[in-house]
Design a protein that fits this description.
By secondary structure, the protein is of the alpha/beta class. The chain is 36% helix and 15% strand. It has 2 domains: 238 residues, Aspartate Aminotransferase, domain 2 (3-Layer(aba) Sandwich), CATH 3.40.640.10; 102 residues, Alpha-Beta Complex (Aspartate Aminotransferase, domain 1). The structure holds pyridoxal-5'-phosphate.
Length: 367
């Protein structure tokens, strides 16, 4: 129960925007009216104030610490969501018009691909799991790497299909670019393997409205002159993400979520929690044929678990009865069907345990 409220919070399995840590929600409630003793709210003060600049710097420092981001990488807060990054990345780091290589893993990599097509960027799909309805991270052979490629793109976790890269490919000198919107900070990360990492905040690290970008220094200045000011990483690097008015509220909350992650023990602790939670649900799926996992076991996501019931009617009933027990957001995306339990960092372990228990009970009653 949140401080000062009279309701029990529902268990939040929504895919995004998604669950936030209860202690953070309490802090938001307590601190929203008076920012750092200014006697004004954080959402009504100047983003040029010393107090605000300090918050941004602290938030960046915490992210650097949590993900062990090396000094030759910049950390940026941008707007427009991960979706803007699909097109902004090639504008900045593929000035030759490609080729860009990518692995096709589902809905999100398809959207990335669509943005390359719009800009007429040459691309090469090195591997795809489309034939098996994106139920796995496809294998690819490093002999397929094209040394001419301007970058190599992956989606580390396909939020909709529920598949996640178990470990990342080695792309040598080709900058590896990853959409980590749904699994950033859910497990330890070797940032040095990547040229650029991006993530909308609203799954693992905060409210919607801000996008985290981590970019290696040498990629910042590749941008051609005809790219608009706001779409150049260079602009945001020079101005510490404050070229224009930043999304103050979400950054402010991200900063609190970072405190929470650090208090919990960092990304190692997040990974442990997430695999414990996911393990409870996959155990039920694997018990027998009643629930069918949509992903093959070695590509299973620890944060988005996709499964089907014996038929669609039962699937609907499952989602309805779960909602009656205050377990919300379990309906699968229409492209995959069935159910999906999104269990990001801040979903409590108890919520996963309640879901596992409900799944077993539902099976007993409807088997
Ligand atoms: C949610 C999501 C996006 C879209 O993010 P926006 O911030 O809404 O643009 C992109 N990629 C992945 C993997 C996602 O999960």
């Amino acid at each position: 129960m949140c401080v000062g409220t009279d309701f029990e919070r529902a268990d939040n399995f929504f895919a995004g925007p998604a669950v936030l840590p209860e202690p953070v929600l309490n802090r938001v409630q307590q601190e929203i009216l008076n920012f750092k003793g200014m006697d004004l709210s954080v959402i009504e003060i100047s983003h040029r104030s010393k107090q605000w600049e300090e918050t941004v710097d602290q938030c960046i420092a915490k992210i650097r610490k949590i993900l062990s981001v090396p000094d030759n990488y910049e950390i940026l807060f941008l707007q427009g969501g991960a979706s803007t990054q699909f097109g902004m990345i090639p504008m900045n780091i593929a000035p030759g018009g490609g080729p860009v290589q990518l692995v096709h893993t589902g809905v999100w990599s398809k959207k990335k691909l669509a943005e390359l097509k719009i800009q007429g960027i040459e691309y090469d799909i090195v591997s795809s799991s489309e034939e098996t309805n994106f139920d796995r991270i496809p294998q690819f052979d490093s002999s397929q790497l094209n040394p001419q490629a301007e970058y190599f793109h992956i989606c580390s976790n396909e939020t909709i299909g529920g598949i996640q890269w178990p470990d990342y490919p080695d792309t040598g000198d080709i900058p590896l670019v990853a959409d980590m919107s749904s699994d950033i900070m859910s497990r330890p990360l070797d940032v040095e393997k990547f040229g650029l990492i991006y993530a909308g905040a609203q799954k693992n690290i905060g409210p919607s409205g801000v996008t985290l970008v981590i970019i290696r220094e040498d990629l910042v200045n590749r941008v051609p002159d005809n790219v608009p000011t706001m779409l150049r990483y260079e602009t945001h690097v020079k101005k510490n993400s404050m070229h224009n008015t930043p999304p103050v509220f979400p950054i402010w909350v991200v900063n609190m979520v970072m405190d929470w992650v650090i208090e919990q023990g960092g990304v190692e602790a997040m990974e442990k929690r997430n695999s414990e939670k996911a393990g409870m649900i996959y155990e039920v799926i694997d018990e027998d044929d009643y629930y069918q996992g949509a992903a093959v076991p070695n590509s299973r996501s620890a944060v988005n678990i996709t499964f089907r019931l014996p038929d669609d009617e039962l699937g609907k009933k499952f989602v309805e009865q779960a909602a009656e027990r205050k377990m919300l957001g379990l309906k699968g995306h229409r492209s995959v069907g069935g159910c999906r339990a999104s269990m990001y960092n801040s979903l409590p372990v108890e919520a996963a345990a309640r879901l596992a228990e409900f799944m077993r009970e539902f099976k007993r009653q409807n088997g």
